[in-house]
């Protein structure tokens, strides 16, 4: 099992149990109420809650219920914020913050990146990073490896099913890249499916995206996730990973 797969498996295990728990609770509740409160066709209906038109139902005026409704979601949001804090800080690490990926690599230097921690606390840390550029335009991606050695970053093209001939970005395992991105026309957003990262590219403005190619990262499709016109759905590229 690769490091990348281990990360996704860890998350998968964790979320599937929460999803199952929520599903069981929700559907049990739904079915119980659907049948328990079924009315007889044409039957007499009593009015157990003494509901009157124009009068706020008194069972809704319940302080315990009000407090529970407020406190429970609040605690849930605090917990969700807590578990997502580190992964989000890592994915959106500011360029001038050396905590996660250090500074730009000197010539010949390697990022030596690795997954640190486990489960939802797993993040990628690197010794340094390489800079390259991504440009989006209707409806194609352009990659520019700038000064990087061919072994670290290279481009080519490839014909794939559905998408036709698309550009290919060749990156190296264990290296971390900072993509400086822009658009020549409308807003686009490259989505690296296997890395699980995406970011908007905007006309006349630079945005950036960390591409952490850890050991075991597989070749993957890059798609556009910001609707950008007629051929948006086939605005694709490939990430090819070599060791
Ligand atoms: Cu697009």
Walk me through this protein's architecture:
This protein is of the alpha+beta class. It has a domain at 129-242: Cupredoxins -  blue copper proteins (Immunoglobulin-like, Sandwich). It has three helices and 13 strands; from the N terminus they run H-H-H-E-E-E-E-E-E-E-E-E-E-E-E-E. It has helices spanning 3-36, 63-91, 98-101; strands spanning 103-104, 114-116, 123-125, 128-137, 140-144, 153-160, 164-172, 175-183, 190-192, 197-198, 207-213, 220-224, 237-242. A six-stranded mixed beta sheet has the order 6-7-13-12-9-10, with no helix packed on it. A hairpin with a 6-residue loop joins strand 2 (114-116) and strand 3 (123-125). The longest helix has 34 residues, at 3-36. It is elongated, with a radius of gyration of 25 Å. The chain starts with a helix and ends with a strand. The mean pLDDT is 89. Bound molecules: copper (II) ion (CU). Copper (II) ion binds next to loops.
**Small molecules in complex:** copper (II) ion
Topology as H/E string?
Answer: HHHEEEEEEEEEEEEE
Task: Give the spatial strand order of the biggest sheet.
Answer: 6-7-13-12-9-10
Let me know the largest β-sheet: 6 strands, mixed
Specify the CATH class of the domain at 129-242: Mainly Beta
Give the overall average pLDDT: 89
Anisotropy-based shape:
elongated
The CATH superfamily of the domain at 129-242 is known as Cupredoxins -  blue copper proteins
Helix share bin: 25-40%
Q: Pairing-aware structural class of the strands and helices?
A: alpha+beta
The CATH architecture of the domain at 129-242 can be given as Sandwich
End-to-end CA span? 16 Å
Give unreliable regions as ranges.
none
């Amino acid at each position: 099992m690769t490091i990348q797969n281990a990360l996704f498996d860890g998350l998968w295990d964790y979320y599937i149990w929460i999803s199952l728990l929520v599903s069981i609770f929700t559907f049990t509740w739904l079915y119980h109420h659907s049948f328990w409160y079924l009315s007889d066709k044409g039957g007499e209906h009593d009015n157990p809650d003494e509901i009157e038109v124009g009068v706020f139902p008194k069972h809704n005026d319940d302080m315990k219920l009000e407090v529970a409704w407020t406190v429970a979601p609040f605690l849930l949001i605090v917990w969700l914020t807590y578990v997502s804090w580190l992964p989000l800080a890592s994915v959106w690490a500011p360029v001038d913050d050396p905590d996660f990926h250090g500074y730009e690599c000197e010539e010949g230097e390697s990022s030596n990146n690795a997954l640190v921690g486990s489960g939802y606390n797993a993040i990628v840390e690197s010794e340094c990073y390489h800079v390259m550029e991504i440009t989006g335009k209707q409806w194609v991606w352009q990659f520019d490896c700038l000064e990087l050695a061919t072994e670290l970053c290279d481009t080519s093209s490839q014909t794939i099913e559905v998408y036709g001939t698309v550009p290919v970005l060749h990156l190296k395992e264990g290296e971390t890249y900072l993509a400086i991105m822009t658009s020549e026309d409308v807003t686009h957003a490259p989505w690296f499916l296997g890395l699980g990262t995406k970011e908007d590219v905007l006309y006349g403005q630079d945005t950036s995206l960390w591409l952490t190619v850890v050991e075991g990262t597989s070749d993957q499709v890059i798609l556009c996730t910001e609707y950008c016109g007629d051929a948006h759905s086939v605005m694709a590229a490939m990430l090819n990973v070599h060791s």
